[in-house]
Amino acid sequence: MDDRGGHGGPRVPEQRRPGSPAEPAALHFTVLGPVRAHRGEDQLAVGSPQQRALLAALLLREGRTATAAELIDALWGEEPPSQALAAVRTYASRLRKVIDPDVLVSESGGYAVRGLGPGALDLTVAQEWAAEAEKAKAAGDPGRAREVLNRTLGLWDGEVLAGVPGPYAEAQRVRLEEWRLGLLESRLDMDLEQGCHAEAVSELTALTAAYPLRERLRELLMLALYRGGRQAEALAVYADTRRLLAEELGVDPRAGLRELQRRILQADPELAEPSAPAAEPSVVPVRPAQLPATVPDFTGRSSFVRDLSRVLSAASGPEGGGGTGRVMAVSALAGIGGVGKTTLAVHVAHQARSAFPDGQLYVDLQGAGARPAEPETVLGSFLRALGTADSAIPDSLEERAALYRSLLDGRRVLVLLDNAKDAAQVRPLLPGTEGCAALVTARVRMVDLAGAHLVDLDVMSPDEALALFTKIVGEERVAAEREAALDVVAACGFLPLAIRIAASRLAARRTWTVSVLAAKLADERRRLDELQAGDLAVKATFELGYGQLEPAQARAFRLLGLADGPDISLAAAAAVLDLSAEDTEDLLESLVDTSLLESAAPGRYRFHDLVRLYARACAKRDESPAGERQAALSRLLDFYLATTAQVYEIEHPMDRLVDHLEPTRYPGLRLTEGAAALDWLYTEAGPLLACVRQAAGTERLRRAVDLLWAAKDLTESGASSYQYEMTARATCHATRAMVDERAEGRARTVLSDVLLVSGRIEEAEDEARVAMELAGNARDATAVSWVANNRGLICLHQGRFADGKVLFDQALEGLRAAQNRPFEATALGNLSRAYLGMGDTAKAVEIARRGLAAHSEIGRSVRLANSHFALGVALTQADRYSEALDEFADALRIFKEHRQRLWEGVTNFRIAQVHLAARRPAQAAQHAEVALTLGVIGGDRMRGNVLTLLGRTLAGLGQADRAKACWREALNLFEQSSAPEAHVVRSLLAPASTS
Question: How many Cβ atoms from other residues are within 10 Å of residue 532's Cβ?
Fold first, then answer.
């Protein structure tokens, strides 16, 4: 019986047309798994396996009648029982009692299933959705096609026609499984076309293990690995495939696979990116439109606008795409602060948008500030805006710049790099391909930026300045006092920013006349005697706006400018000003209206870097008493420390660390819920760490160190790791300079934490050893216990398990004395690993269970996950694999809930170890791939361990060449860090080198 249908999918039974009389409870059948029947929500009993085989045969015949002979052949094949015909009639009779008699009908000596409602059979739904996906793909909507295919594949529930006997069922199982694999390959192909290569590797690794002879899956895996930067593994997959096909079938790989290998060997640039790179419009932005809004009252600068527009037009090429642009154009605008560089660049960029249909990128490089934006950070944000997944963004500056240029190749994109520090900061951010262009603004002339079109922007002409003033203030008021208006713009030095501030203040005060403003500007006490180039000229323009602030506004302006950090939240600003949130918001919004402050997002504010410098100068000059400046920064530090301590308490309930932090006078936010607490911590990471750095070297140093300690989850989660480490190093330097043993001991304890997480064990040991001595001298029991635990972990990494046990016992003694039960439970988990290393597995399991029991009594926290993890490790070594997997699963759920990405990664690594030990290499490979994607605690050394494990799983799957590629990468990582694991990997590779 061949019931194959058209359109690439199986044929299905006849369906009842909409509008037919509805049944009280509709019938539903499933065949893409066990054969089941439901009436509404109730499952119907469809009988023995042979009875289900009869029902399946009828469901899959499209409503056509199956004769008794066909049904006998379907159920028993060539050797039916003597009473086969009677059995078929009995089965049919029983089924008709269960389902409607008018659904299973008797006709011409046979039977048929007819009159089913829409969607009554899961196979029907699957076929309709597959057709819908095909239409979406043909219509150029791959995101929709991918989503529908995912939904379609979700209809399968294990083996098709599970448990149903007979040759017909077996043939249908093969056919429907082949169809499912075809749909899965189509969806994976769409994944790769949309740049999801990193995510696809794990799934493809498992699939190629399950279906080793399916060449299309191998081809997709090679492409995914290549696009993920794993060329050696991609070629190894081909080698494994060629050998397997030769050994099993005596054939060579098909032409498509051979061609892909050739293109990988030649580093074909077309392979680096999807051939159809359109992403899901609702999820991934692929056409960035990041330009800030142009000012509605843009005035003058006509010659500059024409000049820059000409350069951009030449770069973008003829309209309609009929020609190609010349080499990528760079225009660099230079001038003093406040001269209008950004305003002009944004205006020109908006005018040129139609010439760059593939998007516009924008960034403020903060070149005039103390901490200019790092090019690699900027490239990360640009890559995300261009549709690159986080997991696909490389780590190094060079790799990010190369990927950025590759993404822009063939596109027409305009890049606006605002407020640059120098040419070195700008060069990695330039597109480098024809059809694209870059606009750069800076305070210095970039004569060393090769090939750049340099533009020196001067102040406005008197006519332009007056026109700008008039647009803001209003024609009627200026016409009545033209001479006074000319005096105003002249007093502003014709500097656009100064004119805008002055005009805005006048426009906001209807009772003022232009003459009143002119008289104020004539008072030289309100402005500098002489306008000069550079910052002094900028100060003169800001002095005009600052001088017209109300006293409360001026105080807010001065004090807020004192705080470092990229921006500041409303709550943090309220702490600086020592005001309620409502009063603070009123003041900040009024400063936004004067353009002295920017609203970065709802509830967040930032200064332009030059305005911040001016505000600080005002604070030094005007703030009285002088101690108020330090008091404001002290309140800000208190706010961050008090709030971070609350976050720590929520994430680590009953942990006594918060009891031993420096006291605070100013309160923090009231947080009660874990997700909100983590949101706050990760959002405030930049300003919080900036506050710590700013307090280093001051009388606030101890609180700053404690703030860094309480915010330790920032580094273990993988968030802000680099900033956190740099801040820890800065505090270590500051504490050493101030000869504060207690603060230095804590700072070095924190730094040893960071180094442990990143896998730099020798450095961590050096810091922890000094920290222990300092904490002991300062009689800081909390730090002593903490650093003893860290030193124990270091011993585990170094294989010094007996030394580790001694240190963990020391930590436990201190923690028990301090009644710090959560940390005691964590230390017990670490102690269990020392016993594992010493070969006492039973003792290790017992101690790990004690730690888990203690944490379970305390309640659900991130450290409960650490206890599940520790017990899972012990159970793995005890060969109790099922129990170990249960513990790791519990740990993984909690780590995900608390956003501990690196711990998620290392837990997947441990799960992979269990599966490999249990001889399940396919599952092991899948979890190892997930660990590589997420990242792991322990840095490159731990990544080497993951690669070593992945190689073992691949070797177990018969993929020897890809396994060797993993081992070679692992060996490179181990050799770079002189890790002892290198000799293990060399032994794994040794057979290859001697053969």
Answer: 14
